[in-house]
């Protein structure tokens, strides 16, 4: 496990340490980041900060839906959300525990969003005055990072416009389409619950925060709505590609069946003549005629040419 503590010193600078004892008791803004805690460390964190053990397990071992829980008695907030941190589009749960002095983040693996927030705070790029500001900035960074994966999917979907559906690349195209649809499903499993949660928080005004923080919260919700709409649009495009592919395959099958039907129609009278003169009757005058073979060939050619001309006239060929 790795525990890193960040706090704001007297010079309003962000200082990082891995030792509890180095954190001044007078520091008003403190952030502890915990990666994959052991059972003993979970117990220590739970007792020291009055956290619920299940909330820690949800951010390490379980894959629960995003949550937003206010504890008015302890004046604390618990947020469970999912980060996307690799190109497998898999979700990584992370819990955020916020009170007046501390923000505690717990997750199983190292996350880019944590490093981005740490660097931005140390370089004083963010106006952070409270733990609520810190938590909102972290949620903002996590949802911004969704764009990296959504844009990748969107670019791949739009690249299909330059690919023609034919026998050569049709199979590869459809393999790519099904791969992207799988990625869209994974992203929607992360985005839609997050968007629904923030919509509930915004609509019910669950979070008592300053006006500027409220604006950022609504902005994050709007961003998630935009990301959700982008994924739905990409999914609809892949549906259209699937439908076009099915139409293309159906047309190909219809053309093949049309050719086979015409060939069968041409050979049907020839088969009839062959069967007729192939009967083993003793008296068939035509069989003893000197030119019977050539006459049969001529009749067969006439029937074949007549049928071909008839099919062409009907525009069936």
Automatic annotation (TrEMBL):
Give TM regions.
256-279, 291-311
Q: Which InterPro entries match?
A: CorA_cytoplasmic_dom (IPR045861), CorA_TM1_TM2 (IPR045863), MgTranspt_CorA/ZnTranspt_ZntB (IPR002523)
Q: How does it sit in the membrane?
A: Multi-pass membrane protein
Tell me where it resides. Cell membrane
UniProt keywords (A-Z) are: Cell membrane, Ion transport, Magnesium, Membrane, Transmembrane, Transmembrane helix, Transport
Query: What's its catalytic activity?
Result: Mg(2+)(in) = Mg(2+)(out)
Instruction: Give the molecular function GO annotations.
Output: cobalt ion binding; cobalt ion transmembrane transporter activity; magnesium ion binding; magnesium ion transmembrane transporter activity
Q: What is its main location?
A: membrane
A GO CC term assigned to this protein in UniProt = plasma membrane
The record's similarity note reads:
Belongs to the CorA metal ion transporter (MIT) (TC 1.A.35) family.
Cross-referenced PANTHER family:
CORA FAMILY METAL ION TRANSPORTER (EUROFUNG)
Main function: Mediates influx of magnesium ions. Alternates between open and closed states. Activated by low cytoplasmic Mg(2+) levels. Inactive when cytoplasmic Mg(2+) levels are high.
> How is this protein named in the record?
Magnesium transporter CorA
* Organism annotation: Staphylococcus lugdunensis
Upper lineage is: Bacteria, Bacillati, Bacillota, Bacilli, Bacillales
């Amino acid at each position: 496990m790795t525990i890193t503590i960040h706090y704001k010193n007297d010079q309003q600078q962000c200082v990082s340490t891995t030792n509890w004892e180095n954190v001044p008791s007078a520091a008003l803004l403190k952030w502890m980041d915990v990666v994959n805690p052991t059972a003993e460390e979970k117990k220590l964190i739970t007792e020291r900060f009055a956290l619920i053990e299940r909330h820690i397990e949800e951010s390490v071992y379980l894959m629960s839906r995003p949550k937003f829980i206010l504890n008015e008695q302890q004046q604390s907030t618990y947020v469970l959300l999912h980060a996307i941190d690799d190109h497998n589009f898999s979700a990584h749960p992370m819990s955020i525990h916020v009170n007046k002095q501390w923000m505690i983040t717990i997750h199983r693996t190292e996350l880019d969003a944590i490093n981005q927030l740490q660097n931005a705070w140390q370089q004083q790029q963010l106006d952070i005055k409270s733990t609520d500001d810190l938590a909102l900035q972290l949620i903002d960074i996590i949802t911004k990072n969704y764009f990296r994966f959504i844009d990748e999917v969107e670019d791949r979907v739009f690249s299909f416009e330059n690919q023609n559906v034919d026998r050569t690349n049709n199979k590869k195209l459809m393999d790519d389409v099904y791969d992207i649809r799988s990625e869209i499903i994974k992203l929607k499993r992360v985005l839609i619950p997050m968007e629904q949660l923030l919509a509930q928080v915004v609509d019910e005004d669950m979070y008592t925060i300053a006006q500027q923080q409220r604006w950022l919260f609504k902005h994050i919700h709007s961003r998630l709505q935009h990301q959700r709409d982008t994924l739905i649009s990409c999914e609809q495009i892949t549906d259209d590609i699937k439908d076009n592919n099915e139409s293309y395959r159906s047309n190909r099958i219809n053309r093949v069946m049309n050719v086979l039907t015409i060939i069968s129609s041409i050979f049907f009278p020839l088969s009839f003549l062959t069967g007729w003169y192939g009967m083993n009757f003793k008296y068939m005058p035509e069989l003893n005629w000197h030119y019977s073979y050539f006459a049969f060939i001529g009749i067969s050619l006439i029937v074949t040419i007549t049928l071909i001309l008839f099919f062409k006239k009907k525009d069936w060929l």
